[in-house]
Design goal:
The chain has 287 residues and is of the alpha/beta class. It has two domains: 125 residues, 3-Layer(aba) Sandwich (Rossmann fold), CATH 3.40.50.720; 121 residues, UDP-galactose 4-epimerase, domain 1 (Alpha-Beta Complex), CATH 3.90.25.10. The protein is 40% helix and 16% strand. It has eleven helices and eleven strands. Helix 1 packs across helix 6, helix 3 packs parallel to helix 4 and helix 7 runs parallel beside helix 11.
Length: 287
């Protein structure tokens, strides 16, 4: 192994992947659109600028790939990047997808087939929804802080929320050389919870009142769009909530344990740690 490139290297999952690999002595190059002070192994990388691809992939054997989230059909950009990466010697890619995304001819669903077609060894990670959505700057977290309310279109549907640290551990093991299992790599936490149950657990841990309000997918589309999100993208996000209401995310898998040898973090443990962190640093970003 030469160098692992981590795209989205300053993001929620990417920075955890970089930390995991560096702790094990792996040479890591992180990439994002903005410079990172004090990180001499960080490169400027922009999906909209193919001229940044060559410098990012030079000497890279493996890649943690986070596609451009703002692009509703990112296949063209990702395809050009993969061509540059494979030409530079990349042999394995761990693609961050989602349990809510299925293979398709276009959109985000087009990426797994595209990567499999271009790269010799591919692991497609399909995690459930992030526990970190309940903290920091995410709209769900903002609603909890500002109104004591979580608004979704999920009804009573359950989600086996996952900690991105567990996603990073799976990606790290696969990038280090673990054999890639056959079949879907669906990553979940150990328990499926409705948003009503999640709100109640947040209240128990923090001592504050938090409620869940379920609205229709159409109402949620309008609310998301009012925040400046394009209509088609807002409708897609609301549609994911509607799928949860129909039971799409209620499954629990053993993938994290099977690959890492460790049990995934529970939602309650995540909340307890987040609450302790906020209590210790009340001016910080942890909700």
């Amino acid at each position: 192994m030469r160098t692992v490139l981590v795209t989205g290297g300053t993001g929620t999952t990417g920075r955890r992947v970089a930390t995991f690999l560096r702790a094990r002595g792996v040479a890591v190059r992180t990439a994002s659109r903005h410079p990172v002070a004090g990180d001499d192994q960080h490169v400027i990388f922009d999906w909209a600028d193919p001229q940044t691809f060559a410098g990012a992939v030079e000497g890279v054997d493996r890649v943690f790939l986070v596609a451009p989230l703002s692009d509703p059909d990112p296949a063209a950009a990702v395809g050009g990047f993969l061509d540059a990466a494979v030409a530079a010697g990349t042999r394995r890619v761990a693609l961050l997808s989602s349990s809510a995304v299925t293979d398709a001819p276009s959109g985000l669903g087009a990426l797994p087939p595209l990567v499999r077609d271009r790269v010799p060894e591919v692991a497609v990670l399909r995690p459930s929804w992030f526990m970190q959505n309940f903290v920091g700057s995410h709209p769900v977290a903002a609603g909890i802080r500002e109104r004591g309310e979580i608004v979704t279109a999920t009804g009573r549907g359950r989600v086996a929320f996952i900690d991105p640290g567990d996603i990073a551990a799976v990606a790290g093991h696969l990038l280090l050389g673990a054999s890639i299992p056959d079949g879907e790599l669906i990553l979940t936490g150990p328990q499926a919870l409705s948003y009503d149950e999640a709100a109640a657990m947040i209240g128990e841990v923090t001592g504050t009142s938090v409620r869940h309000t379920s609205i229709t997918a159409e109402e949620l589309t309008t609310a998301i769009e009012a925040g400046g999100v394009p209509h088609d993208y807002a409708r897609m996000l609301a549609g994911m909530d509607a799928e949860i209401a129909a039971g799409s995310e209620e499954r629990i898998t053993t993938t994290v344990r099977d690959i890492t040898g460790e049990e995934p973090r529970s939602f309650r443990d995540f909340l307890l740690d987040a609450h302790r962190a906020r209590s210790a640093h009340p001016a910080g970003t942890v909700a």
